[in-house]
Specification:
alpha/beta, Rossmann fold, Beta-Lactamase, 5 domains, 27 strands
């Protein structure tokens, strides 16, 4: 039999609404429905009609199922409520039931919806009848002889009715002669509390209590009573009604047990999920050591073009898989509230300059300009979690490059607010890419959602990066937002609050310009408006008069228009020229500028993409590697203007000089590193990585052999795998510390395929000095070992690389 039903559907998608109604029709219902997707529309629906059932989507851009549930309960409408969600996971179900939903159905299993609707409508009818019966009972309680009593001030039963006698457990026709109700109270303290209320207020309503029957059984009753006074204000007696609520109490206890069971199940499920994710991370990271490590090592060897292309596929595919694993782990930890932010000193200038350097190759491969602008008023020394800040910036910059095919990407950091204890910093990542479709902008920060989500996707990813960023920034006391125009690019911006740390001197960020710059003039020649603007802002802040043009032809024309003697007031003229300048070419432009302005006082700085140091030649006086670091630009200008104060230049972070002929720093050759790992692939890759970096490597295939080599050869640093048979890395480092005592301290760095904060803390607590998660990349390994080479870091410093 087809059952008519009136449904209020809280859903923003007409297609999903039709799917829901179709599922009800297939289940034997004839639904009439109204679809709403805002609080206002839902209130209007409540006022305009009556409904049998409310079905709500769990997640919508402007409204959600839990908000709709709250509104329904606050409206005092007692309607069945079923939550429908596309999310898969017990967390959603537990949250829904905790908030009072009657049932929860996945969109992927709408076939269950009619059964849930039938059950809830049936329960609803039962609930309505029960409520009506209770209402009738309460309205008649004062005048119908059911459960009524009158007792003296001392508690003696004066008058009663047969139902009361039955309730108290006396046999049919029996009479509790000379019964004092104090005798049947199970808890005397409850009776004393009831009497105190009556004496103080004269009335009590719905007072729950336990009574013991003559046969020893216990029942729960609810008493409503009032005191009757004589003319002098003394209490004559009490009268009221007694209701047996034993079944309700038992139902509540059963519900509590069921709720506790659900809670315990959720906790156990969360525990098992965490264990599974940790195990999954370990099992995936272990083979990735071989994949990513081999790819990196191959890329440093002599290869044909085809071999290099295939090697790059291996490396990039492995890193993409590693990113997916890290995103899933981070999202799981954030959802469980298990991410604790560090509070360590860091240099925001170093962090951002290294950040754009890390993306130099990706930007160069797509012919994109990558620019960094740092507010001169930004405190350089901050205290907070630089690794999580870098994680957010990495995600945004990586996305900007990924979704930009031409143009530029600009990273900005600006001081927003500063007080005695902290600094609020605003970061921006702006690009000229494809932008975000308007339809996708409202759901961009939802888990597993991507702006470009078609079946023929051009771009990869888990859809978790922005969600993770938003949750991390919330913990940092900030927030994230964006503006985007499809086809014209996006600007993602966020704020984060940090404590003040040890201030780091940055001459180029000083408010006062150096005197030698006051007679310097500069011209910036670059096709990128963003890079021209950033460099111009830096030069202006240093007191350098400057102009910016987009091509060499414009620059030459500008210089030709300068009146004769127009350069005489400047002792130095500097041209900042991009090596990709079209038309006559960068070197042609450089020679033309020098011919126009004079070779003696005109200097040319070339901006190039080569990572190796390049000598001055063919009209070029200095090279600066892109992306342009402000510290490199400042030091280069200082050198060109002939500043004799070498102390000033020494304080500036200058561009790295070229490495030795073989690319290996001298200090690494004398450094003895012991690698302890039971996995053959890990040992092979680790040994080759150490050799490629120039370290003297020794290998142990287990903890016991490693202990013997530590005692025999006294290595400078030990790379210790944590998970090994017989004796693991934690036990091994404890034995090393026991043997050394206070005489020596061997630096031990943990290597583990587990990658959570708990794993890192466990390593440090065991006595290790630092931590590297597998797979270990060459750059991360080199940076870690170089930092420890002369004991530059104190023991127990953690590093998330």
């Amino acid at each position: 039999m087809i059952q008519p039903i009136r449904v209020l559907l809280v859903e923003d998608s007409p297609d999903d609404a039709e799917l829901t109604m179709r599922a009800l029709r297939r289940g034997g219902f004839d639904p009439t429905y109204a679809r709403v997707d805002t609080p206002e529309a839902m209130r209007a629906a409540f006022a305009q009609g009556t409904w049998d059932l409310v079905i709500a989507d769990y997640s919508m851009p402007r409204f959600n199922g839990l908000a709709a549930l709250k509104m329904l309960r606050e409206s005092e409408l007692d309607l069945p409520f079923i939550l429908v969600s596309g999310a898969v996971g017990e967390d959603v179900a537990v949250e829904a039931m905790r908030c009072g939903a009657d049932d929860y159905v996945l969109k992927s299993n709408l076939a269950r919806l009619p059964l849930a609707a039938e059950r809830e409508l049936r329960d609803y009818q039962v609930r309505i009848e029960r409520n009506r019966a209770q209402a009738r009972y309460r309205s008649l309680a004062d005048r119908v002889p059911v459960g009524l009593f009158r007792i003296s001030a001392a508690g003696d039963l004066l008058e009663f009715n047969p139902p009361l006698i039955e309730m108290l457990g006396f046999p049919e026709g029996g009479s509790p002669q000379h019964l004092n109700l104090a005798q049947v109270w199970l808890r005397p303290d409850e009776r004393a509390r009831l009497k105190a209320i009556l004496d103080r207020e004269g009335v009590v309503k719905n007072f729950a209590m336990e009574l013991r029957r003559p046969d020893g059984s216990v029942i729960w009753c609810e008493q409503s009573a009032r005191a009757i006074y004589d003319a002098t204000g003394e209490i004559l007696h009490y009268e009221g009604v007694l209701v047996d609520i034993t079944s309700r109490k038992r139902a509540e206890e059963e519900a509590n047990r069921a709720r506790d069971k659900v809670r315990d199940l959720a906790l156990e499920t969360a525990r098992l999920r965490s264990e599974f994710l940790a195990s999954m991370s370990h099992e995936i990271r272990t083979p990735l050591v071989g994949i990513i490590g081999t790819g990196e090592l191959l890329s440093h060897s002599v290869l044909t073009l085809e071999q290099r292309r295939l090697t790059e596929i291996i490396r990039s595919s492995g890193e993409l898989l590693l990113t997916v694993v890290n995103d899933i782990l981070d999202f799981s930890k954030l959802a469980a509230g298990r991410v604790v932010l560090e509070k360590l000193d860091f240099d925001i200038v170093e962090l951002t300059e290294c950040l754009i350097d890390a993306f130099a190759a990706a930007a160069c491969a797509k012919n994109i300009e990558l620019a960094l602008h740092l507010d001169p008023n930004l405190p350089t020394g901050l205290k907070g979690d630089q690794n999580r800040l870098r994680q957010v910036l990495n995600n945004l910059v990586g996305n900007a490059i990924k979704f930009t095919d031409r143009g530029d990407v600009t990273v900005r950091a600006t001081r927003v607010d500063e007080n005695g204890d902290g600094v609020l910093v605003r970061f921006e990542v702006a690009d000229t890419g494809i932008g975000i479709p308007y339809a996708a902008q409202g759901r961009l920060f939802q888990p597993f959602v991507q702006a470009e989500g078609s079946t023929s996707r051009r771009f990869g990813g888990t859809g978790l990066g922005l969600v993770i960023a938003a949750k991390l920034l919330e913990q940092m006391g900030g927030e994230i937002g964006f503006e985007s125009t499809p086809g014209a690019g996006s600007n993602f911006h966020f704020t984060a609050r940090f404590a003040k740390g040890s201030e780091i001197a940055r001459p180029w960020m000083s408010a006062s310009a150096l005197s030698c710059f006051k007679t310097m003039r500069a011209i910036i020649i670059n096709e990128s408006p963003a890079l021209r603007r950033v460099i111009s802002d830096y030069l202006s802040s240093w007191g350098v008069e400057n102009a910016a043009v987009g091509s060499g032809a414009e620059a030459i024309a500008m210089l030709q228009r300068t009146p004769a003697g127009g350069h005489d007031q400047f002792t130095q003229f500097v041209a900042l020229l991009d090596e990709q300048t079209p038309a006559i070419g960068a070197h042609g432009v450089a020679r033309a500028i020098k011919d126009q302005c004079g070779s003696e006082r005109c200097k040319v700085i070339m901006l190039g993409t080569e990572r190796e140091a390049r000598p001055a030649a063919d009209g070029v006086d200095r090279w600066i590697t892109k992306p342009v670091r402000p510290s490199h630009l400042f030091s280069c200008l200082l050198e060109l203007c002939g500043n004799s104060d070498r102390g000033v230049i020494g304080k500036v972070a200058v561009a790295a000089s070229g490495p030795p002929a073989d690319g290996i720093p001298d200090w690494r050759r004398a450094m003895h590193v012991l690698l302890v790992d039971d996995n053959l692939v890990n040992r092979i890759i680790g040994a080759k990585q150490l050799s490629a970096l120039g370290f003297t490597a020794e290998i142990a295939d287990g903890a016991r052999q490693g202990l013997a080599l530590v005692a025999k050869d006294s290595p400078d640093i030990v790379l210790m795998d944590c998970e090994m048979p017989e004796m693991d890395g934690y036990e091994a480092v404890a034995e090393i510390r026991r043997r050394e005592g206070s005489v020596r301290h061997t630096v031990v760095i943990a290597l583990t395929a587990y990658a959570t904060a708990d794993d890192r803390a466990r390593c440090l607590d065991a006595g290790m000095d630092d931590y590297l998660s597998k797979p270990v990349k060459l750059d991360a390994l080199a940076a870690m070992l170089d930092r420890w080479r002369h004991g530059e870091l104190a023991p127990t410093v953690s590093s998330r690389l």
